[in-house]
Specification:
With 131 residues, the chain is an alpha/beta fold. Helices cover 19% and strands 34% of the residues. The protein contains 2 helices and 8 strands; from the N terminus they run βαββββαβββ. It has helices at residues 12-23, 79-91; strands spanning 5-9, 29-34, 43-47, 55-59, 72-75, 95-102, 111-116, 122-127. Strands 1-4-3-2 form a 4-stranded mixed β-sheet, covered by helices on one side. Strands 5-8-7-6 form a 4-stranded mixed β-sheet, with helices on one face. The longest helix is centred in the middle third of the chain and has 13 residues, at 79-91. It is globular.
Length: 131
């Protein structure tokens, strides 16, 4: 259904470092980059190696609005990758919004973690595979 998602970032270089670190445990990497320090309209794109982007992060000039209830959920291949994503987020300027663990209210194998990126975007990473 979705082709890709774009997020805004006031500090594109900080955002690129954050997403470089947190998406690696999920099997994604920066697949294109348009970083030109000091210039407008910079961006980076992430996806599986050798593919187009599924997530783009674009430089913006105004703060990101807080939209109640909005978050992005990313699929993880394993529970270990959920934990690695969460740890990378905290080590790279993100904040905890729910540690890695089972969420039985969401399903019997719903293992997830929640973070807020340095720009204020709420992210969830989830693995539904049995342990």
């Amino acid at each position: 259904m979705l082709h890709h998602i774009s997020l805004g970032a006031l500090d594109i270089e900080r955002a690129a470092r954050f997403y470089d670190a947190v998406l690696e445990p999920l099997g994604f990497m920066r697949v294109w980059s348009d970083l030109r320090p000091g210039e407008d309209e910079q961006a980076v794109g992430y996806g599986p190696p050798g593919s187009d982007d599924l997530l783009a992060v674009k430089q913006v000039e105004q703060p990101i609005p807080n939209i109640p209830g909005f978050h992005i959920a990313l699929a993880a291949p394993s529970r270990a990758s959920v934990a690695a994503f969460h740890a990378a987020a905290l080590a790279n300027g993100g904040s905890d919004n729910g540690p890695p663990g089972l969420r039985p209210d969401y399903g019997p194998n719903y293992f997830a973690a929640f973070v807020v990126d340095p720009e204020g975007h709420r992210l969830e990473v989830v693995c539904k595979a049995p342990d």
